[in-house]
Amino acid sequence: MEYAKMTPQQLQAEYDAVSARFQELKEKGLKLDMSRGKPGKAQLDMVSDLLSALTDPADCIVDGMDVRNYGELSGLPCAKAYFAEILGCKSEECFIGGNASLNLMYDTIAKAYTHGLLHSEKPWAKLDKVKFLCPSPGYDRHFKISESFGMEMITIPMTADGPDMDAVEQAIQDPAVKGMWCVPKYSNPEGVIYSDETIRRIAGMKPAAKDFVLMWDNAYCIHEFDGDFVPFPDILSLCREAGNPDMVFEYASTSKVTFPGAGISVMATSVDNMKYMTGLMSIQTISYDKVNQLRHVRFLKDKAHTLELMKKHAAIMKPKFDAVLEALDAEIAPLGIAQWKRPKGGYFISVDTMDGLAKRTLALCKEAGVVMTGAGATFPYGVDPRDRNIRIAPSLPPVEELETAIQVFCTCLRLAALEKLMA
Amino acid sequence: MEYAKMTPQQLQAEYDAVSARFQELKEKGLKLDMSRGKPGKAQLDMVSDLLSALTDPADCIVDGMDVRNYGELSGLPCAKAYFAEILGCKSEECFIGGNASLNLMYDTIAKAYTHGLLHSEKPWAKLDKVKFLCPSPGYDRHFKISESFGMEMITIPMTADGPDMDAVEQAIQDPAVKGMWCVPKYSNPEGVIYSDETIRRIAGMKPAAKDFVLMWDNAYCIHEFDGDFVPFPDILSLCREAGNPDMVFEYASTSKVTFPGAGISVMATSVDNMKYMTGLMSIQTISYDKVNQLRHVRFLKDKAHTLELMKKHAAIMKPKFDAVLEALDAEIAPLGIAQWKRPKGGYFISVDTMDGLAKRTLALCKEAGVVMTGAGATFPYGVDPRDRNIRIAPSLPPVEELETAIQVFCTCLRLAALEKLMA
After folding, report:
1. Other CB atoms within 10 A of residue A231 CB
2. Which of A332, B34, B68, B120 could disulfide-link B116, Cβ–Cβ 3.0 to 4.6 Å?
């Protein structure tokens, strides 16, 4: 029965029952983590052969170079070819980075501030105001980068098709709006795949700022856990065709393909941007870790082989997502206190509670030993205006633990709703 | 016989002979590289076991964490302990970075510009002028960082004891002087070890700028190729004792211990600086590659074991340095046209020619197929005011090739000197 339709007596009875259940769970002294999109141990064990994918020094000579020595700033040709096939762009548009695409994103923004981008009139540090579009709910680490550099973040509502493009097209008329964060496939946290029409409108934007930068974080581009690989368009081509060749920087990594934090990353952008950025990056480093680049290419081979591996990840991930969704369907759906998406890829389930429940729900979870991403984290400045979005990351705990954790979550959400309705 | 004492006839005869020799060498169509401090293949092959130092997934759990997963921004405790022992500082003063200490240095400067350092009143990007002290000849990549950020570089003469401290102490009275680059042991390119007295004066500096940063690049701290390991003082302790606890950032890496560009790096600084910087770096990345950190700790073990390995590097390096020095002694010393240091560690031999010969010598080398570090590179803005310093990097070519390369160099230097004396 929906909580909203309950009589005060019914609410009180429900409150007593849920409180008792909460106390029970609390007394278990749990210590469970659904806070971040960390792959689980079974996924790591599955790719153990990466560790021995490059052990013979004779194998370290490739593309005419010794990967063990200095050089080749933009990365190994074979690593560029690998990512170009995955992303559908050209090899020469790929820059191979270190163990974190986040670092490449940060460095792009940092260079915009210290040196300016290719089409900047001056470094952003010299501007009075820099604004950035933040489709929300979105990825907290993107927003933290913007916040760290003192940007004014503009919340753009997310729709089932991606960012609200009417709002975007309006906002970019302001020349102080210098860019936008996007996770186009299995968006963090909602798991939305941007529609073709949305992507077409994004590629064709006409921002007032000549150095507007589309931060295209394709973090989950091959990360289906339910069903077959869903092809995605090459944003570099689309931007080029729309007359915006230098507007976009695309990012991806093997963090959720091999080892998170010990993989390789890529930044894809136009050849003109590449030339400009490698000029700046040649001051920052001699090259990223080419041994690890080659190790990955040997292990992952190509797109087809990588997609096979992703199927194995999916086999581990799907039961976890199912466990969460089944619990939500059984425990929460009948109560009318929250809604959620049913993603087919990515690392998150995004729950929208009744307004004003997110913080309280997560505080209760914490009390019961279940750590979740902080409430508000999916919005700029960590402030969810309706205090309702909760990001569930089911990947790390084994299914048994996860089932307990989601029970805790459902109980806490019910308790928070009851408190609110009875207040 | 010294060229300066030759009669015009003698000079002409010598010129004819050296020119003929140059033509001979040129016709060989050589392609030799003495441009950068790249270890040679024999050194890389010697550390091949690093590739298989971590192949069992069970070995990936250390210090209570799975190094294959996200987390631990400042690095693995065992990696911190490893570098703390090498540098003589404390574990908690160590931040373990990716494959390049250069990247950590760049990022420190970049953060000074975008966010300011711990004691900065404002980000350096907001200042009209930032000046930086550049002991010269010095490391071109340091100077390039300063140049890229638009700093005004102030040349500080190098002495046999390190930077001219009278000049330094004078310069730091200017509050626009925000820092200094140092390579304290086997300085690049001269191989100078800063004297205890110089280091004491550096640690005790009283700069007008409260956020003055001592960029202490200890790149060659264990890199003796001739003789035993030479202990060096812990600059962090010295600065702390002198009342400058937060003035210094020290950098080192395994680039010339294991694989250049595929090793691990460290930034050591006060706990207060560490707290401030990791706050900023937590926005930039989740962590650096912990798998490679653990791989290195397993392979290198500890300081004693690493010093044993460095003896093996020395056995490969010393004959190369000897070949260069022997050729210079035999071919150049009697002519009175250049002087050079005789380093016992590091990666370079620094030659000071008669004024005005460096550019021409290197242009001739290039003509004859021998690539060297560009003339002027060892000075700010790439301009050597006396056009005389040449950095020789003997590590990459095998000894036979090196012997040819240095013959080319000596011939070109003689020719350049003769051209000048006969002009």
Report:
1. 8
2. B120
pLDDT at A63: 84
B44 contacts A69? CB cut-off 8 A:
yes
Q: pLDDT at position A36, please? A: 87
Span A256-286, pLDDT tens digits: 999 999 999 999 999 999 999 999 999 999 9
Please, which pLDDT band fits residue A164 given cuts at 50, 70 and 90? very high
Q: How far is A265 from chain B (nearest CA, A)?
A: 12
**Per-residue model confidence (pLDDT) at position A183:** 98
Q: Nearest CB to A55: which of B52, B68, B283?
A: B52
- Fold match, B3-44+307-422 / B55-301: no
Q: Do A286 and B114 touch (CB under 8 A)?
A: no
CA–CA gap between residue A84 and residue A78 (Å, rounded):
10
| Amino acid present at A113 | Y
Contacts of A41 in chain B (CB under 8 A): 66
Cis peptide before B189 (omega within 30 of 0): yes
Within 8 A by CB and 6+ apart from B363, the residues are: none
Q: Which amino acid is at B356?
A: G
Q: For residue A328, what pLDDT is reported?
A: 98
CA distance B104 to chain A (A): 8
Position B247 pLDDT exceeds 90: yes
Contact A99 B289 (CB under 8 A): yes
Going by their DSSP bridges, the two strands B213-217 and A152-159 should be labelled as unpaired
- pLDDT tier, B36 (very low <50, low <70, confident <90, very high otherwise): confident
The mean pLDDT value for A97-123 works out to 98
Residue of A69, A123, A292 with shortest CB distance to B260: A69
A153 — pLDDT class (breaks 50, 70, 90): very high
- The CATH number that domain B3-44+307-422 falls under is 3.90.1150.10
- Confidence grade of residue B73 (pLDDT, cut at 50, 70, 90): very high
Q: Is the pLDDT confidence value at A169 over 90?
A: yes
Question: What percentage of residues in chain A have a pLDDT greater than 70?
Answer: 100
Interface touch A106/B36, C-beta < 8 Å: no
Q: Which of A67, A71, A261 sits opposite B290 (nearest CB)?
A: A261
> What is the per-residue pLDDT for B63?
84
* Topology (CATH) of A56-302: Aspartate Aminotransferase; domain 2 (3.40.640)
For the segment B390-407, what is each residue's pLDDT rounded down to a tens digit?
A: 999 999 999 999 999 999
Q: Angle CA(B138)–CA(B141)–CA(B144) in degrees, nearest 5?
A: 100
Whether residue B292 and residue A292 make contact (CB cut-off 8 A), yes or no, is yes
- Break chain A into its structural domains and give their ranges: 3-44+307-422, 56-302
Q: Which two tokens stand for residue A276?
A: 């400009």
Q: Are A55 and B54 a contacting pair at CB < 8 A?
A: no
